Amino acid sequence: MSSTYFRQDFLTVPDGASLFFEVRGEGGVPAILCDGLGCDGFVWKYLWPPLTARRRVMHWHYRGHGASGVPDDLTRIGMTFSCDDLARLMDHLQLESAVLFGHSMGTQVALEFHRRYRDRVKGLALVCGSYGTPLDTWHDHTLMRVAFPPLMKLIERFPRVAKAITNNLMGTELALDVAIRGELNPDLIAPNDFAPYMKHLQKMDPVMFVRTLDSLKDHSALDHLAQVDVPTLVIGGEIDKFTPVWLAQRTAELIPHAEYLLVPGGSHTAPLERPGLVNHTIDRWLREKVDAHALRKAG
């Protein structure tokens, strides 16, 4: 299939939010890439080529993330609105259904979307993410659950100060080095592959970040895992600190017939750290499970 098709555009939804989306490639069962919190697509860098070689791929930015705007009512941010936004984007692009890829927060979005729009999901690829309540498992303890409420109040009360801090800090070489050495695998991640995430955080409104995180902290799709009825691939990073690997293992165990990939030495950015292993596994899974399943149904 040709991978020359390319489009970038915006869709304004009824409450005023302008959603950025991009579409590449043609043919096959379509794929949709759902980012993590504070991300604008950096983690999919090495996955774009193999995906677009066989199918149409859509990637989008959540409200308040990347190139997307915000709604007229600034309280309408986060998980509650993400699934409806995605459904509107699919309608706009005439995508009846697709296989959903979710990284980090995108795992919650993908699972919740399947709960609410089951007929529109052909498969789930859940990458380094939790099924819910991420503040309870960050670094395998509940410290963030305790620390987040007062931090959010400070950011909401002093938004300009918070923006000045992130603007001056996140784009520095020191911040990049500390983040890589403290949270990722410095032996596997290329600094240039992670730098776009830090630059995006530098530009992002901290209020939008904490409001999105606030919408995630009590959301859980744990009760829905047993109801997932589409081909599912769960990918976990062996040393992931944001979403400890046991969460990926548990997710795979609770979703009927799910396939599980453990990425040796992989952290929260496993698709960038071991792209060969991750891409090979995803390509095989798509061909053997998603595409084959679609052909059987069509036949």
Describe the protein's architecture and organization.
With 299 residues, the protein is an alpha/beta fold. The protein has a single domain (6-298), classed as 3-Layer(aba) Sandwich (Rossmann fold), CATH 3.40.50. The chain has helices at 48-52, 79-92, 105-116, 143-157, 159-169, 173-183, 191-203, 206-216, 245-254, 270-273, 275-298, and strands at residues 6-12, 18-24, 31-34, 57-60, 98-103, 121-127, 232-237, 259-263. An eight-stranded mixed beta sheet has the order 1-2-4-3-5-6-7-8, sandwiched between helices. Helix 3 (105-116) links the parallel strand 5 (98-103) and strand 6. It starts with 5 loop residues before the first strand and ends with a helix.
Structural key phrases:
eight-stranded mixed β-sheet, 11 helices, Rossmann fold, alpha/beta, 43% helix, 299 residues, single chain
Uncertain segments are none
Number of strands: 8
User: How do the strands line up in the largest sheet?
Assistant: 1-2-4-3-5-6-7-8
- Please name the CATH architecture: 3-Layer(aba) Sandwich
Structural class label: alpha/beta
Output the CATH class name: Alpha Beta
Q: How are the SSEs placed, and which strands pair?
A:
Elements: E1 6-12, E2 18-24, E3 31-34, H1 48-52, E4 57-60, H2 79-92, E5 98-103, H3 105-116, E6 121-127, H4 143-157, H5 159-169, H6 173-183, H7 191-203, H8 206-216, E7 232-237, H9 245-254, E8 259-263, H10 270-273, H11 275-298
Parallel strand pairs: 3-4, 3-5, 5-6, 6-7, 7-8
Antiparallel strand pairs: 1-2, 2-4
Helix pairs in contact: 2-3, 4-5, 6-7
